[in-house]
Design goal:
Elements lengths: L2 H4 L4 E6 L3 H10 L7 E4 L9 H4 L17 E2 L12 E2 L15 E2 L4 H9 L7 H10 L1 E3 L4 H7 L15 E3 L8 H12 L15 E4 L1 E2 L11 H6 L8 E4 L3 E9 L5 E10 L2 E13 L2 H12 L1 E2 L1 H6 L6 E2 L11 E8 L13 H14 L10 E5 L1 H4 L8 H8 L12 H11 L7 E6 L12 H4 L7 E8 L7 E3 L10 E3 L6 H20 L30 H8 L3 E3 L27 E2 L1 E3 L14 H18 L3
Parallel strand pairs: 1-2, 1-13, 2-10, 6-7, 12-23, 13-24, 14-15
Antiparallel strand pairs: 3-4, 5-9, 8-17, 11-12, 12-13, 16-19, 16-22, 17-18, 18-19, 20-21
Organism: Eremomyces bilateralis CBS 781.70
Family: Belongs to the GMC oxidoreductase family.
InterPro entries: FAD/NAD-bd_sf (IPR036188), GMC_OxRdtase (IPR012132), GMC_OxRdtase_N (IPR000172), GMC_OxRtase_C (IPR007867)
């Protein structure tokens, strides 16, 4: 629909952002033919672009303004002073359009933590129907299940009729996916269960949002929009940037959302709403839109000459992100890795094989992952044990940085000390990573390193550090200030330092993976290390320095419009209604009060599915 057509109609619901959550909510609300639903999306419809639908080309969209907002953090004061790139999807489907398609799962404790923070009905048992609702699970063949060691998957715990296609692609399995689960068990980690049972420890080949039939990316645009786009009550406008939610304050002081202003083609537009505005801008842009609309910290809004209609200093705070540290090795001659695509001729052959027959490695994506507890990674020094380390460091904060609330700290300390909970996730990829240019994420993986390699990405699943997202002007055309506050809590540094050392030891001393690496002790075998650090870290002290030079984002930011009691840092209530307003909700990862283990895409779909039900209940259907 054109902007002129859109603004000539008054809609029941206007959704700001056609991303992972926005299209999910829109599709579900438009199931009621009596309701009219409009979506305003700043990006394009990219469903026919091979960069989008080809699974392994995801990283080619990073830094590309046609697909990526290209956000940058501020220099990280507690790390090495570097500003890093923060990819966020721009276009129908949002970040589900550009991510690596890994379908992670929170633990039971992760979601029950939300209830403990004052959010009844958001616990593990409450949410399982929504995790099943968004997906159609394809059980692997007996042969594929054995090759990937995923016999533990239980179809009864999975969805069978949802819009997002989830499974394992039947293709030639590379050495990494084949060998990783075996290595994990040799390290003493348990044999994995289906994560839908409530926990995930061990070596996994994670499920992916790739349609096993077509071998194409399955994401919000193909799952929730394309099948429903011809509904007469479901309207979408693309290349339209939302400026703010229109709010009216009556004589009784009630603030109500009445519409949205946006620009398209340089022209301003206004769309009116009869029931609700639903902001689905994601962790970066939802707080930006609220602040630009007059909801946020009074002093900040006045600084930018914005009338403060709802004074809530919690907007944009509580930012949490999974920070990862890269470790790379050179592989032996003859070991085939993803670095073969550096040869243009081979890259063209692979692309031709995919486009003509949906064959070859481009039809799959990264899936090899280890989840492990803190006790697995901790390497004691002196008499200190893992629990004492938590108590010593978890409340040590870089001066001037955000401090987690006491409730958050108590929960996170308890969970970190629980040997049945994952404190680290390690993602393995069969290529060398160049960690020098972290402000351009595409160059991390698609680089000019003169050798083939293997890498692991070590991340802490429940970060203690806190950051923020705030406007830098009253215009949403101006990117907000993003400060994830990496390493401002010493516990994060410690978890990653110990984890990196433990995983280096694991990789280098355990076959079958070690058998594919160049002699780790030979001169010249540390080519990747020497680019950011004098030598491979061998002590915890060296590892603490290393992690602050070799880190980046895992693209999982959450928390900036936290669901919690308003007196305890909340921006939205348990129905995701913005405090102090009527007819305004936020639905996306920004409402998550505490982080969860692993990739967050499945959690965002589940949140959006639940939100749609909450909205339907409000309006009587």
């Amino acid at each position: 629909m054109s902007p002129d057509e859109l603004t000539s109609t008054e809609f029941d619901f206007v959704i700001v952002g056609g991303g992972t959550a926005g299209l999910t909510v829109a599709a579900r609300l438009s199931e009621n033919p009596e309701w009219s639903v409009a979506v305003i999306e700043a990006g394009k419809d990219n469903t026919k672009d091979p960069l989008v639908y080809t699974p392994l080309l995801a990283m080619k969209m990073f830094d590309n303004p046609a697909f990526d907002w290209n956000f940058q953090t501020v220099p990280q004061k507690a790390a090495d002073g570097t500003a890093i790139g923060w990819p966020r999807g721009k276009g129908l489907g949002g970040s589900s359009m550009i991510n690596l398609q890994m379908v992670g799962n929170p633990s039971k404790q992760d979601l029950d933590n939300w209830v403990e923070l004052g959010n009844p009905s958001w616990g593990w048992d409450d949410m399982q129907k929504y995790f099943r609702k968004f997906e159609t699970f394809y059980p692997p063949s007996e042969k594929l299940a054995k090759e990937l060691q995923v016999e533990y998957l239980d179809p009864k715990l999975r969805g069978d009729s949802g819009p997002i296609q989830v499974g394992h692609v039947d293709m030639e399995i590379d050495w990494l996916k084949r060998d990783l689960p075996t290595m994990a068990q040799k390290l003493g980690l348990p044999a994995p269960n289906d994560p839908r049972k409530g926990s995930a420890l061990g070596g996994f080949n994670q499920l992916t949002a790739i349609d096993p039939k077509t071998k194409e990316r399955s994401y919000a645009a193909t799952g929730y929009w394309l099948p429903n786009k011809d509904r007469p009550n479901f309207s979408v406008v693309t290349e339209a940037l939302a400026e703010k939610v229109l709010l009216e304050k009556n004589i009784d002081g009630e603030v109500r959302a009445t519409g949205v202003s946006f620009t398209s083609g340089g022209k301003p537009y206004t769309i009116k709403v009869k029931k609700e505005v639903i902001v689905c801008g994601g962790t970066v842009q939802s707080p930006q839109i609220l602040e630009a609309s007059g909801i946020g910290k009074r002093e900040l809004l006045h600084k930018h000459e914005i009338e403060c209609l709802v004074d809530n200093p919690n907007v944009g705070e509580n930012l949490q992100d999974h920070c990862n540290v890269f470790v790379s090795w050179e592989t032996k001659p003859g070991v085939v890795t993803g670095d073969v695509v550096k040869d243009p001729a081979i890259a063209q052959q692979l692309m031709t094989a995919y486009l003509t027959a949906r064959q070859g490695p481009l039809s799959g994506t990264v899936s090899a992952t280890v989840y492990a507890p803190w006790h697995f990674a901790f390497q004691p020094s002196g008499s200190e044990n893992a629990e004492q380390c938590i108590q010593t460091l978890s409340r040590t904060i870089t001066p001037g940085s955000a401090v987690p609330p006491q409730k958050h700290l108590r929960i996170m300390e308890r969970q970190l000390g629980d040997p049945t909970e994952a404190a680290l996730q390690v993602i393995y990829i069969d290529s060398a990573v160049d960690i020098r240019d972290r402000n351009h994420c595409s160059r991390l993986y698609i680089n000019e390193l003169p050798f083939s390699g293997f890498s692991m990405l070590v991340c802490n699943t429940h970060p203690f550090s806190r950051g923020s997202v705030h406007i830098r002007s009253a215009l949403t055309h101006d990117a907000p200030t993003v400060d994830p506050g990496y390493f401002t809590n010493d516990m994060d540094t410690e978890v990653l330092a110990h984890s990196v050392l433990r995983m280096i030891q694991a990789v280098e001393t355990n076959n079958p993976i070690a058998a594919n690496l160049a002699d780790v002790g030979a001169p010249g075998s540390e080519k990747v290390w020497n680019r950011v650090f004098p030598t491979k870290p061998k002590t915890v002290e060296e590892a603490r320095e290393y992690v602050k030079k070799a880190y980046s984002t895992v693209y999982h930011p959450i928390g900036t419009c936290q669901m919690a009691p308003e007196s305890e840092g909340g921006v939205v209530d348990t129905s995701l209604r913005v405090y102090g307003t009527k007819g305004l909700r936020v639905v996306d990862a920004s409402i998550m009060p505490l982080h969860v283990q692993g990739n967050i895409m499945s959690s965002v779909y589940a949140i959006a599915e639940k939100a749609a039900d909450l909205i339907k209940e409000t309006w009587g259907t």
